[in-house]
Amino acid sequence: MTFKLKQIINILLCGISLSAFPAFALDLVQALKLAQQHDMELQAAQAEYLAVAEVKSQSTSALLPTISLSLFAQKNSTETSNATGAFNNSTTDTTSDGYTISLKQTLYNQQLFDAMDESEAFSAQALASFEAAKQTLIIRLAQAYFSVLAAQDNVAFAEAEKKANARLLNQNQERFKVGLIAITDVKEAQATYDSAVAQAIIASNNLSNQHEALWLIINQRPDSLSSLKDSIPLSFPELEDIKIWQNKALANNLNLRAAHYALEAAKNNYDSQRSAHYPTLNLNAQHSSTSDDSDSAVLGQRDINDTSIGLSLDIPIYSGGYTSSKIRQSAAKLEQAKMLFEKVQRQTIQEMRVAYLGVQASIAQVQAFRQVLISTESATEATQLGLEVGTRTSVDVLLAQGNLFKSQRDYAQARYDYIIKLLEIKYAAGLLSADDINHISQWLTSL
Question: In the prediction, which pLDDT does 394 show?
Answer without folding.
Answer: 76
